[in-house]
Structure formats: structure tokens, C-alpha cells
Amino acid sequence: MNKPTNRTTNRTTNKTTNKTTTKKKQPYTSKLQGVSALLGEGATPSDTPNKNDAPSSSIAISAIKLPESQPRRYFDPNKLEKLSYSIKELGILEPLLVRPLPKNNYELVAGERRFKAAQMAGLTEVPVIVREMNDAITHKVRLVENLQREDLNPLEETEGILELLAMQLDTSLDVVISYLTKMRNVCDRYKDEENEVRHNVMSQTETKVIEELFASLGKMGWDSFVKNRLPLLKLPQDVINALREGKIEYTKARAIAKVKDEKKRQDLIEVAIAEKLSLTQINERVKAANQVAAPVHPLKERYKIALPRLQKSKVWDNPKKQKALEKLLTQIEALVDE
User: Which residue, 50, 111, 121, 157, is the most exposed by fewest CB within 10 angstroms?
Assistant: First the structure.
């Protein structure tokens, strides 16, 4: 049976509760800033259980199932290994958030990074808070928790924010992108006007939702998001793959994406990663890769170009050159008559 046991988290998982630990030694904890604001609750899911939560308890790690779709796609292996070592030494102080499934199993809602690190550390039990949640709230909590990760790369962050906006506005991702772009255009067009004028052009309801969400996340303004993050969605797939895996920074990714030739672009990605090229070095190589070689004209085109030059040339005033020209013309006439 995998029913939770009502034991306190620190007693079951933290082997060093009597020791003083510094902030540096607590990479396994996290605060889901923005969760409470977005879900309309007074505390984050993992800080204080609400009335529908089971008390903090431990369950078998084998009873926790990952959902088919998780917002987060990539974890840095080195950072995950470091977290695993910390968990081996100190345990997991902050419970994972799960919701119940049939047959005494549980679905992970928040804490995937800690969950994977706990598996690497060989833990058989982990502390959890069990909460009854519908699919919509579950997905929203996952998105927000995911967006609070310090090592979340810009592409995943961009996709997560757009998905969260789509949920808040109850619309599609394409509509959200279109609306954000329109907001930016309106602000640029009416930048010298009062806010009231701009709001009269745009829907106040959607605008308010967007502004409040970005304020609650505390990462960047919506206008900065439109300018610096939406272009990431148009990057070539090979660049997106490298960015999603955390192999290159997004400023470098945008620079490399300017290389039009796919083979040259892939080569530059590999070199940039292997040699840890700076943005300046990458820009220099991008410029070199995009240089267009001087066109090689076919013979007929060369003739068309040479004839006007010949007519205007001073060769006609030079007796020696005239003799050479006459000889060449005789050869050309012979070729034509063959």
C-alpha cells in the first residue's frame, strides 16, 4: 500500500535537522512566487496546505507518476547531479505537490526537479502534500512553478508565459501572440498620448489580464517580452534545439539564426558550443558566413558585358592592339562559321 504516512517532513527526510544549514546549502527548496496571486490563494501550495490538503506526509517514490505532458522539457544534468548530492546529505525539506490517482498512486504537480534528483539520490520515500485539483488548476500550477526556476531557459520561459496567458484569457496561443503584437503596435503609435487614449484602442479586459500576469511573475514587462522573447519562436529548429537544451544563451541563438545557409548554421552552432564563443566572435562568424561570393557569369553574359566596354575602349587608337584585336576577331568569325 502506498498511502501517505502522517509523519513530519523533517523527521522522515532530513537527516541533519539538528544542524544549522546555510542558504547556500539549501538548493532543494523553492518558493513559487506568483502562484498565490494567480490562483487566488493566500499561500503557495508547498508552503501552507489549504483546507483540501492532506497533511504533509511521506509516500513511496514509486507511487508518484509524471503526467504525460510537463511544461518543463530540459534539466541541466550537472545542476541536477549537484541537487542530488544535496538531497543525499540533507534530504528534501520542502514537500512535493501531488494529487491523488486511483490505486493509491499520485500524480506529480510541482517539484519535478526535486523528484528527479531524489530518484538519482536513491530515495525510496519523499515528502508530499496531497491536494485535490482539477486539470485546469493542476496545469496552471505546473506552469507557474516552472516559470519560477532560475535555470529555465528563455525559450521554455517564453512558451510557458504564452501558455499561461492563453489559459488566463481562455483563447489560443496564436490569438495571444497576435494580441501582444497589437498592444506593442498601439503603444508605439500612441506613445505620446495619455494611457486612456491607448486603452480606448485596445480591449481593457485583455490588457488588464496581461499586465497583471506579467506584474505577478515579476520577470519582465509585457512590452519587453514582445520585443525580446516573441522573436525566439521564429528561430530555425536547429537553433531552437540548442537553446532548449541550454547549450547556448538566447542572445547568441538569435545571432546564429541570422545565418541563412543551414549547413553553415549547424557548423556554427557546434563551434559556438565547443569553443564557448563570445557574442562578438559569433557575430563576426555570422557576417563571414553570410558574405555572398562574386557571381561567376556564363560565357555569353561575359560577352554581353565585354562588348560595350570594347566599343568605348582606347584599343582603337593603338595600332598594336588593333592588330591583336583583328587576329582575335578572325578566330571568332572562324568559330561562328564552323
Answer: 50
Residue 128 lies in a domain: yes
On the 0-12 / 13-18 / 19+ scale of CB atoms within 10 A, 72 is middle
Give CA separation, 179 vs 182, 184, 315, 325, in Å.
5, 9, 67, 69
How far apart, in Å, are the Cα atoms of 89 and each of 83, 180, 197? Answer: 10, 46, 58
Asked if residue 266 is part of any domain, the answer here is yes
- The predicted-structure confidence for 293-328, as pLDDT tens digits, reads as follows 666 667 878 778 888 888 888 888 888 888 888 888
pLDDT given for residue 162 in this prediction: 93
For every residue of 276-310, DSSP letters joined together read T--HHHHHHHHHHHTPPPPP---HHHHHHHHHHHH
Return the pLDDT at 307: 82
Domain boundary among 86, 106, 134: 134
Structural domains of the chain, count: 4
Range of the domain at 88: 53-134
Q: Are residues 171 and 225 in the same domain?
A: yes
Query: So what's the pLDDT on residue 42?
Result: 36
pLDDT at 195: 57
CATH of the domain at 104: 3.90.1530.30
pTM > 0.85: no
Q: Please state the length of the chain.
A: 338
Q: What is the CA radius of gyration of the chain?
A: 32
Q: What is the per-residue burial (b if ≥16 Cβ within 10 Å, else e) of 29-63?
A: ebebbbbbebbeeeebbbeebeeeebebbbbbbeb
- CA dist 81 and 118 (Å) reads 10
Report if residue 28 sits inside a domain. Answer: no
**CB of 30 closer than 8 Å to CB of 94:** yes
Residues of the chain with pLDDT under 50: 7-49, 51, 197
